[in-house]
Amino acid sequence: MSSEVLLEVKNLNVYYRVYEGLMHVLDDVSFSLVEGERLGLVGETGCGKTTTFRALLRVLDSNASSKGDILYKGCNVNKMSQTELLNTRRTEMSMIFQDPTSSLNPVFTVGEQISSVIRANLQAKRINYSENDVKDIALKALSDVLLPDPERIFDAYPFQLSGGMRQRICIAMSVATDRKLLLADEPGTSLDVTIQAQILGLLNNLVKTTGMSVILATHSLGVVRETTDRVCIMYGGEIVEIGPTRSLFANPSHPYTRALLACVPKLTGEGIAEGIPGEMVSYLNPPKGCRFQPRCSFCNEDCNRTKPKLTLYEDDHYVACHKADL
């Protein structure tokens, strides 16, 4: 793995204007990613994982606004011109969206959609190509994601395929051309466990062979443990703990991280996890201090008054908690 920093996010905040008021969804999110690194982004549904990805690509909804710095290869994504941004998306970054149904256009064939992505990449890189070259690349990508009979899939429409097949097509579109950064938002959605394991193996192989960096957003702690180098634990739009995967799993320090790990079912069948009590924080009216404090059994007055900052806990392991030494 290279030590060259590919992506650095500094104090990223995202707000959504809704009928009830202003939702503060991401609150000073900061992290970095080096070339060839696999970073896991873990948290409950609604914690801000997808919003983080959309902010990195600058594809937030029209009712959203953001502030903060997103430095990709030293260039601030939030300050790029539209031309620079489009070129970066076409040649450098790619994203696997969580919902395959809304990611594919139902009136165009799979081949037309994946070919348009490949053409845009080749044109942006000023590489000469023929339509046969484009089709060969598309068929290889469809084959790489374990779709049976790629020729038939190439000519099919999305509505003719199952949810799992559509998800694999979205993955194929993301990995068909060389990219430096892949944002994978729940890539195992709609896939059975066998195919999911093979797809994750494909992503790991791409990291090894091409040096591509991956940020993987998922609910599955098991997947993160097996496929990432570092992990960010996210709660209520904040990074509450970040560190090397082995260190974080061996010594979870934030109460939320411990609660997540306690929810993982045990193979020994030692009872059923009760889950984390309470509800996700309200983004319309978040607590002044720690956003996890309404659900935390270790909460004290400091947690109510002051937002904890990410602080070095041990080697490259950071925790945002006033009581992290418990």
UniProtKB/TrEMBL annotation:
GO molecular function annotation: ATP binding; ATP hydrolysis activity
Membrane protein topology class: Peripheral membrane protein
Q: Which residues form the ABC transporter domain?
A: 9-261
One GO location term (cellular component): plasma membrane
InterPro entries per record: AAA+_ATPase, ABC_Ni/Peptide_Import, ABC_transporter-like_ATP-bd, ABC_transporter-like_CS, Oligopep_ABC_C, P-loop_NTPase
Task: Give GO terms for biological process.
Answer: peptide transport
Q: Which SMART domains match?
A: AAA
The keyword ATP-binding is annotated on this UniProt entry: yes
Q: Where is the protein situated, by its record's location annotation?
A: Cell membrane
Main localisation:
membrane
Annotated keywords: ATP-binding, Cell inner membrane, Cell membrane, Membrane, Nucleotide-binding, Translocase, Transport
Which family is it part of?
A: Belongs to the ABC transporter superfamily.
Q: What is this protein called?
A: Peptide/nickel transport system ATP-binding protein
